[in-house]
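Researcher: Good morning. I'm working through a list of sequences from a screen, and I'd like to move beyond sequence-only analysis. For each chain I'm collecting a predicted structure so we can compare shapes side by side. This is the next one on the list. No need for commentary yet; just the structure.
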Amino acid sequence: MGADNVDVFQRLVFSVPSLSRQIPAMALLAVAYSVVAFTAFSMFTPLSPEPSTLLPVAVLLFLLPFLFAGELFHRVLPGYPRTWSFFLALTNQLVTFVHVLVLSGANDVGNAWSIVWLLFITVYLINILVLVISTGIDHYKRILFVGLAEPAALIAAFYAFAGGDLGFTTYRHVFAFASLLIAAAFLVLVLGIVDYLIRSNTEVSAFELTSGILRNDRASLDLGVEAEPAVETLAIDNGDRLTLAAPWVHPGPLGGFGGGQLSGNVIDALNDGEEGADGESGFFLHVPCTHKEDLSNPGDAEKILDAVADPERVARASRLVSHDYGEIEFYGRRIGDKQVIFLHGEGIDDYDTGVFMSDVDKSEVLLVDLHKHDLQNGPEKEVLYGSAEADRLKRHFDDFRERLADAPRSDYAAGFSVRHADQDVAAIVESVDGQEVLLMGIDTNGVTPDVRELAADYRETFDEVLIFSTDTHASIHELANTTRSDTDALTAAVERAAGDVAPATVGLTSRRTRPLKLLKNDYNGLVFSVNILIRLTIIALAMLYALLVIWLFF
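Model: Good morning. C-alpha cells for this chain:
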C-alpha cells in the first residue's frame, strides 16, 4: 500500500480497549492523577493543600467530567461507539493531568489562569477534531455543542475549587470564555476549508471518507470511469469443485469504500457462506494491478461474481516450471494449451495492468501476483506501464512464457481445502509426474512471519511451496494491527488438501463483466488531495495552537 501513501490511515488505527477495561482504568487513573497532582502542588507551589481534598479532586476534576462525556458522546452522536467515546474521554483525562502538572510550575496567578484556560480550550479542540474525523463534518453543529460539555464540567469544577478566589475582573472571565469559542470556530473553519478543497477536487468529503473507513461503513464513491474488466476463472475438479476467481480489479481503496471488501465478498459468495458447501468452494486470486482498478461502487462486486464462469477442463498439465530473473520470479504450469503463471517481484507493491498483459489474451493466460511481502513492512514501489523497468519485466515475462510453452504434460491430480472463517485461508496440493506443489493462500494484504515459517516447514515435504495473499483492503484495523495469522486454520487446510489429492481436471476461461465503474486516474486525484491536505491541516492546527498560546499568555 505504501506506493500510493494510503497507508497514512494505518498509522491512525489502533485497538480501542473494551469498556470493562476503560471504566476501571478511568477510576484508578483519577485517584492516581489526584495523588500526583497533590504531591506536585505540595512540593512546587506555596500552597498547602489538605489531604481531605484528594477525594473531591479525584471525583470532581479527574473522574466525573470524563464519565459524563464518555456516555454523552455515544448517546448524542448517531452511531458513535461507546468504546470510542470513553477512549476519547480517557485521552482528555490524561491531557487534563498533564496541564495540572504544568500548572504546579506556574510562577504567578496570571500564568496559572492562562494554563487553566489553555486546558479547557485544548480539551474542547480535541473533542471537535476527533469527533469530526470519526463522524463527519456534516454533524459539526451537534459536535460543537456536545464537545463543549466536557470542558464545561471542568470549568465548573475549577470554579468550585478556586476560580472565584483569584480576583480577576468580569472582563477577564468573559475574555477567556470568548477565546474558547473563537478557537473552536477557527478550528471548524479550517476543517471546513479542508473538506471544501477536497470536495472541489474529487467530489468526495475527506471527513466522510475518513469516518467511514474508521467505522468500516460501506459506501460508493462518485468517481471513476465505466469499464468492463475481465474476470478469469480457474476451476479444479477432483470429485469436489474449487473455483478460483481472478478479476482484473484491485481490492480497494479501503474498508467498505469502493471495492475494499471485494476479496472477502467474492470468497463468501463462492463458498455460499459455508465451508465446502455441496462439495464446492472457492477463493480469490490477485492479478498484477494497481488502485486505479479499484471499484467505485461496492455493489459492483455482484457484476464480478456474475462473470465467474465454468471453464472446459482437461486432465493433463505440466509440472510447475520456475525461473528467477533476479528482479522478478515466475512460476508456471501448462494446463492443456493454456498457462497459469505466478509472479513475485521483491520490493514491488503493484503493477500497472499493461505491464505484462498489454498484448496477451486473458483467456489463454492467468497471471497471479503472489503479493507475499511482509504485511506490516511492505514495499512502496509501483511499476508504471511504459517505464524502462516495465519493459524489462515484460521481456522476462515473454521469455518465461516461451520456456513454459514447451513443457511436457502429464496426468494431473489435486486436492484442496478452503477454511472459511474470520480469516479465510486456502490450500491447494497439485501432483504432476511425481512433483508435488503446495499453494497456500490467505485473505490478507501481505504475509505475516508465522505464515513464512509454516511455508518453510512444508518445504521439507513438498517439492515447491508458494504462498500468496489476496491484497485485501477490507479492514483498516487489520491492516494496521495484524502481526500473526491463523496458522492453525492454514495447517488444517494443508493437511486436508494433501489427504484429498486425487485425479482431477483443471480449466481456465475469461469473461468480461457488465459495465461498472473503476476509479482509474480519479484514484490519484483522491489520494494526492487527501495526502497534501492532511499535511496542510497538521501545519494549520500547529499554527492555531501556537497562536492560541501567544493569545492567552502574551
